[in-house]
Write a structure and sequence with these properties.
Blueprint: H1 4-14, E1 21-23, H2 30-43, E2 45-50, H3 58-65, E3 70-75, E4 78-82
Parallel strand pairs: 1-2
Antiparallel strand pairs: 2-4, 3-4
């Protein structure tokens, strides 16, 4: 689990990122979860945008996407996810 200080740090880092995935009418599929896991391994911190036509609540979508990752924040229709990379660790969290 992330501390409040670590979440603040990650939110500040994520501020400048553009969403690289969009959840639309189809909702969250296994394929999307796998792609997001791969992106998290490569980047550690990503944004996902929930489109207007998505039938599920954004918080439900966030829970589904955060399996195996940390949910940093849900703000508006944007979800911020973090997972420490095994291969190429870039982000050093504050204690």
């Amino acid at each position: 689990m992330l501390t409040g200080k670590q979440k603040r740090f990650l939110r500040a880092k994520a501020h400048h990122l553009k969403p690289i995935f969009q959840v639309g009418k189809g909702g969250v599929g296994e394929n999307m979860i796998k792609q997001i896991a791969d992106a998290l391994e490569a980047r550690e911190l990503i944004k996902v945008s929930v489109l207007q036509n998505c039938e599920e609540d954004r918080h439900v979508v966030a829970e589904q996407l955060a399996r195996g990752a940390e949910l940093v924040q849900v703000i508006g229709n944007t979800i911020v996810l973090y997972k420490e990379s095994k291969e190429n660790k870039q982000i050093v969290l504050p204690r």
